[in-house]
Specification:
This protein is an alpha+beta fold and 491 residues long. The protein has helices at residues 41-47, 56-62, 131-146, 185-194, 197-211, 221-243, 293-312, 316-328, 330-345, 356-372, 376-382, 397-412, 417-427, 435-448, 452-462; strands at 3-4, 10-11, 23-25, 35-39, 75-77, 80-83, 86-89, 95-102, 108-114, 153-165, 169-179, 245-246, 268-269. Helices cover 41% and strands 13% of the residues. The strands form five sheets. A five-stranded antiparallel sheet has the order 4-10-11-9-8, sandwiched between helices. A two-stranded antiparallel ribbon has the order 1-2. Strands 3-5 form a two-stranded antiparallel ribbon. The structure holds adenosine monophosphate and magnesium ion.
Length: 491
């Protein structure tokens, strides 16, 4: 099917052509009073969808699934996953894929309604989402996009007019989520654990064609797929480490094969630097702490590799050896790329080789940040301002010692201050969506429909590397420690 309607929707659904055991046809459950709360005009434009104001009501009907967009073929995807280390059968329990839309640049996107009602995979859940959690996903995913980090995106939030019960009563809402796909490590785990190897083979070819077409003609596409997915994941985690992002629930079902950040649940941005930082209320052991994210990505990629064993080589011990060779390269590649990223955060451009001296400089800065509970984002921004303007912890002797050492290293490398600043301004965000601001937005929008702070924040986060004085509120750190701050999965 490929039909383009007058609003510009251009569906070309390929997932539905896969073996039907991989999904179940599910239509969204109607909601009582759809009201369009947020609509992302920039994203709509990029997708080639055009709505005029008088379409608002229709749009709300379409983006709750009360009406089905022409060309859409709604389904829920089957998958499994390791949640906090434990393997479980899952599937879209509250999300419905409308289909795949092709934009004017011929790029394929999943169009998904999150919170669209029960499906075959809902288990004990209600299939719904709260307004607060969908607003949160909208803000954070759009912030990630502004930060130049691969991510699913948010086209709209529509309130449903229905109540959602969590620990208390919440307003229900549906998010229209856009992603290159929603194929997860967990999708492969589902197939490898429960389905015949022929389906695994079919699915692997589908994934390669869709996300890694350059691998189609390689000698061993499975091993190449493993490498490519691993490298994408390494780069993604390094981007998270660059901006202080904590995903919060890096279960294998929340890890995209396309290397995008997605399934925003209890995620948050770190203020004071500490590798053990955790905000998620359910992560009591710190499994998904800031500094653990690379290790977990490696663990998840290992689960992915296990699913590919029968396709890598007919001889399973040979296949395991080949997979291990790839997996064993993870730490080295990660460490090398992490060091390069951190070098760029202190103004040492990517074309300069790392050295023991530079590595130590980075480690010392991080140790100082831990000791002083220094803000991760603002500390790097300090390096671009004049020394005579240093205040607070940055005026301390300890920081000055480090600062002088840093200057000496820059000098040795032939990097002048302007060059360093140019590098730092490219890699270090001026603004991140700070937790206390995000919470304030959620209160103001959900309680009073007051969008002032929301609009300011979204505007700042569209160009988060560009300083503007009016967005200084996003630089202020919360008073006291925010370690008591908790994020929740379903609310
Ligand atoms: P998540 O924590 O959002 O990644 O979700 C993990 C699993 O639980 C997925 O299979 C979801 O579809 C399912 N799930 C989460 N919330 C609900 C809900 N309210 N109703 C039904 N299924 C849900
Ligand atoms: Mg999930």
């Amino acid at each position: 099917m490929n039909s383009k309607d007058k609003q510009g929707w251009n569906f070309d659904n390929s997932y539905i052509k896969l073996p039907s055991i991989l999904y179940s046809l599910s239509v969204p459950t109607p909601v009582s009073k759809p009201d369009l709360l947020l609509f992302n005009d920039d994203l709509a434009k990029y997708l080639g969808i055009n709505f005029k104001n008088h379409d608002k009501e229709y749009l709300a009907q379409y983006l709750t699934g009360n009406m089905i967009i022409e060309g859409a073929q709604p389904l829920a995807q089957a998958y499994a996953g390791h949640q906090f280390g434990h393997f479980t059968k899952l599937g879209d329990g509250r999300a419905i894929l409308l289909g795949e839309h092709i934009n004017p640049e011929k790029i394929r996107f999943d169009i998904q309604l999150k919170g669209a009602g029960e499906t075959q995979y809902s288990r004990r859940g209600d299939g719904r989402a709260t307004l607060r959690s969908m607003l949160r996903e909208y803000i954070i995913s759009e912030a990630m996009h502004g930060l130049r980090i691969p991510t699913s995106r948010s086209l709209a939030v529509v309130t449903t007019g229905d109540e959602v019960y969590r620990e208390q009563v919440h307003e229900g809402a549906i998010l229209t989520r856009i992603a290159s796909s929603h194929i997860r490590v967990g999708t492969f785990e589902y197939i490898s654990n429960f389905l015949p190897v022929e389906i695994l083979k079919t699915f692997q070819s589908y994934v390669i064609q869709r996300h890694y077409p350059e691998l189609v003609d390689t000698q061993n596409p499975s091993i190449e797929l493993l490498k490519s997915v691993m490298l994408k994941q390494i780069d993604l985690v390094i981007d998270w480490m660059r901006v202080g992002f904590i995903h919060g629930v890096m279960n294998t079902d929340n890890m995209s094969i396309a290397g995008e950040t997605f399934d925003y649940g209890p995620c948050a941005f770190m203020n004071a630097y500490h590798p053990n930082t955790v905000f998620s209320s359910i992560d009591t052991q710190g499994r998904y702490a800031f500094g653990n994210q690379a290790r977990i990505a490696h663990w998840n990629i290992t689960r992915f590799a296990e699913t590919l064993i029968p396709l890598i080589h007919d001889n399973s011990s040979e296949a395991i050896q080949m997979a291990e060779d790839v997996l064993n390269s993870f730490p080295l590649i990660y460490n090398e790329r992490w060091t390069r990223m951190m070098m760029s955060k202190i103004g040492i451009a990517l074309n300069i080789n790392s050295s023991e001296e530079i590595f130590e400089l980075i480690e010392k800065l991080l140790a100082w940040m831990i000791a002083e509970k220094a803000d991760y984002t603002n500390t790097f921004l300090q390096l671009t301002i004049k020394e005579e303007n240093f205040k607070g912890i940055y005026a301390s002797d300890d920081f000055k010692v480090w600062y002088n050492e840093w200057n000496l290293v820059l000098k040795k490398l032939g990097i002048n201050h302007e060059m360093a600043i140019e590098t730092m301004n490219y890699y270090n965000p001026q603004f991140i969506p700070r937790n206390h601001i995000v919470e304030k937005i959620l209160d103001e929008v959900s309680n009073d429909r007051d969008f002032t702070l929301f609009n300011q924040t979204l505007a700042a986060l569209k160009n988060p590397y560009q300083y503007k004085v009016e967005y200084d509120f996003l630089r202020n750190t919360p008073t006291g420690s925010d370690l008591a701050y908790k994020t929740y999965c379903g609310t």
